[in-house]
Amino acid sequence: MAKAVRFYEAGGADVLRLEDVPVGKPGEGEVRVRHVAVGLNFADTYFRQGYYPVPLPNGMGVEASGVIEEIGPGTNGFRVGDRVTYTGSPLGAYSTERVMPIGSLFKLPVDIDHQTAAAMTMRGLSAAYWLLKTNPWMKPGDTILLHAAAGGVGLIASQWAKLLGLRVIGTVSTEQKADLAKAHGCDEIIYYRREDVPARVKELTDGKGVATVYDTVGKDTYEGSLKSLKRRGVLVGCGTASGSFPPIDALQLAIQGSVYFTRPALADYLADPAERAELSSALFDHVASGRIKIEINQRYELDDAIQAHRDLEAGKTTGSSIFVIP
């Protein structure tokens, strides 16, 4: 039997339960993975709350790293003992071991450890497609606005943006988070709780605005994000920590300077095998070389899942958070 965190109804963090569950044998195109570390992502709370509806009961979590313990038929290219990491469906990463389809797996380079992998696979691939794919007009020397700059994705995205020659303005809530964001590449900081974000952006860009806004907050920041764009800039709706983005008013996009809005999903940027390989190879290369450093600032065990979700939703975390499997 394996240990796994499951939920039977949508709701607050206290709906999570740690249970003994059978693992079963891998079928066609599947392997059994023993987890070493599991990623904790804000998207997990969307599944738990029912914002992303899934059949119930269900497991929790979409990201983990571990070792293949058993292979099923049709798993060419994978073998017992391979170190792997993954992000994506099906739910159930909050577990000590599980059966996974090989289509979700990435082979883990030898110079990246399991905890780092669990802290970076979803976050790093998200940063990769945000920066490399969502604004085809962006070029070195451009300025971007990055909300939640001290979060797990934010710290990776800031470092990657600097490698691309971009100027990074980050929003944070506290001085502690500001110091962390600056240490990972942010050139300028805006304290979104006490400053007018679009006004400060205009001050920092000589009235022009930024080429791209990466908005992980949603409802509370959408209007300010639009107003922070330069003419024909791109607002990338990356997350909805404060609630869903409002209905899009096409005329408002024109009034703000013929700007663009996109609400991308990671799965659509991993669907093509060539693009999947491109993004993952770039991420693994940057991390293995030390050009991008992964900041793991919270470590939990699976039986701390309720507290972990509470910490995440209360804004108490910085950098990446993981569950460590003994």
From TrEMBL:
Transmembrane segments: none annotated. It comes from the Bacteria. The keyword Oxidoreductase applies. CDD domains: QOR2 (cd05286). Gene3D superfamilies: Medium-chain alcohol dehydrogenases, catalytic domain (3.90.180.10), NAD(P)-binding Rossmann-like Domain (3.40.50.720). Residues 11-323 form the Enoyl reductase (ER) domain. Keywords: NADP, Oxidoreductase. This is Quinone oxidoreductase.
